[in-house]
Amino acid sequence: MKIKWLNVWIAAFLAPTVLVLALFYIVPIGTVLVTGFMEWDGLRAPEFNGVNNYIHLITYDNTFFIALRNILLWSLIAATLHVGFGTLVAFVLYKKHIGWRFVRGVFMVPMVISAAAWAIIYKLFFNDEIGILNHMIRSIGFSDFHVNWFFDSPASFFAITLTWLFYAVYVTLIVYNDLMAIPKEVHEAALLDGASEWGMIRHINLPLVKKAIGTGIILSVTARIAGFEEVALTSRGGPGNDTYNITLMLYDGIVNYNYGYANAAATIMILLGILVLLLINRVFKMNESTY
Amino acid sequence: MIINIRKWPELIVSYSVMTFTVLVSIFPILWILLSSFKSNKEILNDPFSLPKKIDFQAYMDVFTQYNFLGYFMNSMFIAIASTLIALFIYTMAGYIFGKFNFRGKSFLFILCTITLLIPGYARAQPIFTIIMNLDLYDTKAALILVYASFGMALALFILRLSFIAIPKDLDESALIDGAGFWRIFWNVNMPLAKSGISTAGILMFLNNWNEYFYALILTTSEKNRTLPVALEFFNEAFSYNYTRMFAALMMVILPGIMIYVLVQEQVQQSVASSGVKG
């Protein structure tokens, strides 16, 4: 009798979470995958139309290829420069020079601000009339400098990149955490063998935080694939379709009641995410133990 | 004290990186803050100068004339309600995952946490339709419900570990004392899982406070508008009054920064106290 009551409690405690899992995760993801192959405007019942949404998505205009190109370029920049900078900061903090705590604390600030607010801050920052950036450029001698960053091509692409390029504090924290976990003996042994500072970084620290860097790459590339605010609130995909991405396609699909199309875009987003995960897992051998 | 000359290049590189990091992190915010005290003319002509005087007129204007308080209260209410609901249901589930065994447990846990790998926006259309069908479109309840669902994977991850760390002997002696399932959960385990619960709560609150995409597609009327969405309307309303625009931006980002400053202290304290124990 007692055992039975325990099972009731367990079921009752899990029930709300299982409901959330079903209603907000399993049903939506299933819907996305299935209705990507359906004609659906939200009013009439969905009807299968094969791969028409995907054909429409790819061939309607060249938006899809521009979106794909942007996402690939942004992902590449995120995986190299963005993660590289985050890792560099982690290695510098690891030295624990005076002020390192302050740097770590301040680096986190842009992350606790709404991404929408951050996008608008940068929109003003790059504004030709009031933005501080163009004022600075003009004041150092280029007095005729006028670029409407978010409205000119290709400036728009770079301006959007700059809204996130240096804000890699998550990478820093993950890498820093793994650096701190390196046993002291490893460094002592290396010193006895006459390792130089640079040699220690290259041959000991860097290989030992490889997995943290891999995780950082997965996180930052996924953020680029699903990026929204930094585009929607600045260039809105423009000029033309220059800075379009998949989340904007998805958003436009929803607000235009083109649900099948929206979910085809969502499916591509999910697939790209899984692809990145598998790829990085393989390249960084994330399943093998470090020590 | 003599500093080894061979250390100099390393010091120069390190401090350059540290200075650059601080600059990119706070320069834009500092610029917004200073500009919010300047007149339009000063903003256009002397972008580098300090404000002539510190007055909060623009802040007052935003506050009194543009329903800032209304949006602020919406954001606060939605973020707090969704975080509390989420904490309640995920703490219960985390307790079960951390302390009990049942068939299919690891499968269910993996299923819950693997959702972290699916971009949140990819589920937008079905969630939009579910909210429509529940007749919750353009209500605060819609956002509370959706936000409560977001933190699932992260919260379960943190909370399961906090409950695993609590010794089982405590449960057993409470059981011998005649405590029931709920009392063992609420009076014995919950107080000990406090730090995990607050960490999960703080992270979820910040996410919910800052959320933009779902607030944009699930609400439309002014009475349910949250601050991140309102920002865009401010941006249009103030297109020629930059001072107010900057003031509004400061007012939107300040609560998040303040919460973070508070949390940082708490994190440092917990590190210090665990150092004493260990």
Structure in a nutshell:
With 291 residues, chain A is mainly alpha-helical. Chain A has helices at residues 2-35, 52-59, 63-94, 100-107, 109-112, 115-125, 132-139, 155-164, 169-180, 184-192, 197-208, 210-225, 229-232, 246-255, 259-283; strands spanning 38-39, 47-48. Chain A has a single domain (60-283), classed as MetI-like fold, CATH 1.10.3720.
Describe this protein's structure.
Chain A has 291 residues and is mostly helical. Chain A has one domain (60-283): MetI-like fold (Orthogonal Bundle), CATH 1.10.3720.10. Chain A is built from 15 helices and two strands. In chain A, helix 3 (63-94) runs antiparallel to helix 12 (210-225). The longest helix of chain A is centred in the first third of the chain and has 34 residues, at 2-35. Chain B has 278 residues and is mainly α. Chain B has two domains: 13-55, no CATH class; 59-263, MetI-like fold. The longest helix of chain B has 36 residues, at 242-277. Chain B is globular, with a radius of gyration of 24 Å. In chain B, 40% of the residues are buried. Chains A and B meet through helix 1, helix 3, helix 4, helix 5 and helix 6 of A and helix 1, helix 4, helix 5, helix 6 and helix 7 of B.
